[in-house]
Amino acid sequence: MYLLPLGGANEIGANSYYLNIAGTGLVLDCGMHPQKKGLEALPRFELINDLPVDFVLITHAHQDHLSALPYLVKLHPHIKIITTPQTRALAELTLHNSVSILCEQIKNEEMKVYSHEEIDLLIKTIDYRNYANTFEISGYNHQSIEPIKITFYDAGHILGSASFLIEHSGKTIFYTGDINTDDQTIQTGCSLPKVKSDVLIIESTYGATESGNLLNREKEAERLAASINKIFNNGGSVLIPVFALGKMQEILGTLWHLIVKGKLTQTDIYIGGIGEKINRVYDYNRYVVRRADSEFKLLDLPVKNLYRVNNPDDFFKHPRIVLASSGMVIEGTASYKLAKHWLMRKDSGIFTVGYMERSTPGYILSNAARGDKIKLTLFMEPVEVKCCIKKFRFTAHAKREGLLEIVEKTNPQKVVIVHGDTNAINWLGAAILKKDKTKTVYAAEPGKKIILF
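Given the sequence above, the corresponding structure tokens read:
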């Protein structure tokens, strides 16, 4: 058994890992890098050109774990795709959305953009398995009499997110994907296998973040409400950049609970685009997955469509809240376009609510203050920040303590750290070895093979 990272090993983006078990080739996740364009945004699929590629298992429907799937299928047309039913439903929305974004970004022939018709066909080929139901797989060149057993566990990250327990010949591998040990407003924390894992492949997003900087969810929600109310008292409006999948649903639920409790002034809340369709999928599945409150319905909330507002100045006629994607304020998205208007409004505020990758406009924005002159992109003219900017953390990833708790409960002999920047990976690796020097810890690198057994 060996692991070959194709992307996302030492960064957050283009997550994809090739796992060879007795001649059967599994690809774990298949994402694109949201801050890169063209071929650079893809995992390094050329590394597996001459290797058996039989199955691809997708943890969840975020772009950095899913959106390169059509390109992998073109290279390996007989590959079998397996995920949870909820991720399959969400993939139908997010992959079609990716097509529209890519058509705007890619104007040359180095990378042919797949069509909506191809996405429709691809979705029909996706097989799905429910949580906690073990199934068996074997590739065409499988060299063992024993099949590979796979079990999906709820990762607690977004709707449908899964971690994978992979078993073969008495050996076990647990791949977390994006995982969260704490409850959110809608999602509950992850479930973990009760068996020991020989190998743990674990994300490290918040490894470099002091947990003291992350308040518990209830206190952070109250801090958000107080800050919004202060903007409203000055007659301003609040822009909150969010990911359309996961973060929009969680923040929308948080805002509504604050309004119901009387802690947040009731006002118009604007959302739009694919986020509205994702809300329907969340509601449809509320009784078949673990939820904090199965009776809570996003579609019952009185929200308005931000795309029906033709003039951005209309958002400032009365105090209101706008939830716009993307969460990292990527150039060309709704949050990026609206942020340029908000920056000029001294009575209004831009509140960020999640992780910001350092190379994104969202990171620049979230670390700015009134009076600063900032450039959201390299070729943009410097703009003076006139609005209030505040950072809040409503994380969908495990904190430091949660990551170490996963290591402790799965008790692996070998740990492979992925999905984090250098500081995050280094902190987690050092913390694991400080607790148990007998473990072997790897910092994964794209193209560098790791022999597991």
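Residues 2-209+396-451 form a domain with the Metallo-beta-lactamase; Chain A fold (CATH 3.60.15.10). Try to locate this feature in the token string yourself.
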